Amino acid sequence: MTRMASGVVEFDGGALAWESAGEGPDVVFLHPGLWDGRVWDEQFGVFSRTYRVLRFDFRGYGRSSRPEPGRPYSHIEDLAAVMDAAGAERAALIGNSMGGKVAVDFTLTHPGRVSALVLATPALSGFEGTRDEEAAWEAAFADVERQIDEAVTAADLEGAQDLRLRWLWAPLGTDDPAGSRIRRIAFENLQELTMDESGEISMDPPAAERLGEIDAPTLVLPADHDPPWHERMCEVLAEGIPGARLVRIPETDHVIPLRRPQEFNHSVVAFLDEVL
Question: What is the overall mean pLDDT for the chain?
Fold first, then answer.
């Protein structure tokens, strides 16, 4: 029988909901920003056959509490607190988008606690777009960005989220089973559009300036239907982290673990089996 545990960590003014399953080396899943820990439903059971897996909802998402306006908090230290509560001293971190950014920042802050990194279409603190990328964004998405802002101002959060998914984060569609799941979890986190994140503590200096310090085995997974700057972000990470590997899963958009779960699981399990 799979060993399971769950709880809520009270830490630094927040309540962080987590759950774990399985036995073996620790693996922590870190979700992307529009969604919550359910993004990893397709991985949790599969990976728990070999590893002890842990996931939690970031502050502001899912079952975790919302940030208090203006009160400082750190996703990095929230992650450390959850790992402590679950008894995970050292773990492989698997992060998607915002979760990838937190994974990299955590690795630079607590290097002894990270055994490996898997970064699926990750964000990167300190990354700056080129003039060409900024011009391409302006040409392709400025009008969409304006429509999203107008929808939020008019309290039409569903309309704003629909635009974000259609044009940015789920352009392959949301009518199929995977896309429907991506849409549903995003729509159940509409509070993300309006919550006050002004208290979030940023990495200083940012990770983009320190990638050479990372010595954890690293796998980077770009998405070929992501906004264009994410492709270069993945390349910057793969080139900047010593020994990092870049593996492409074709025909996917931002939430790879839900959009292409079988391919994602195959690539990541093979990598972890080798490096852990």
Answer: 96
In this structure, are 63 and 177 located in the same domain?
no
Domain carrying residue 183: 131-187
* Average pLDDT of the residues in 42-55: 96
Q: For residue 209, which amino acid is it?
A: E
Can you give the pTM of this predicted structure?
0.97
Ramachandran angles phi, psi of 245, nearest 5°: -115, 145
Tens of pLDDT, residue by residue over 164-174, are: 999 999 999 99
Average pLDDT score over residue span 57-86: 97
Of the chain, the percentage scoring pLDDT greater than 90 comes to 91
Instruction: Enumerate residues 6+ apart whose C-beta is below 8 A from 149.
Output: none
- What is residue 1's predicted lDDT score, i.e. its pLDDT? 45
| Largest separation between any pair of C-alpha atoms in the chain | 55
What is the helix (H) or strand (E) element at residue 99, kind and residue range? helix 98-109
Whether residues 142 and 92 share a domain: the answer is no
Q: Select from 115, 100, 86 the least CA-distant residue to 20.
A: 86
Verify that 28 and 78 share a domain, yes or no: yes
Dihedral of CA 257/262/266/269: which sign? positive
For residues 165 and 152, give the distance between their C-alpha atoms in angstroms, rounded to a whole number: 14
Q: How far apart are CA 83 and CA 29, in angstroms?
A: 11
Residues 24, 39 within the same domain:
yes
Residues in the chain, overall count: 276
Asked whether residue 96 falls in the same domain as residue 203, the answer is yes
Count: domains in the chain: 2
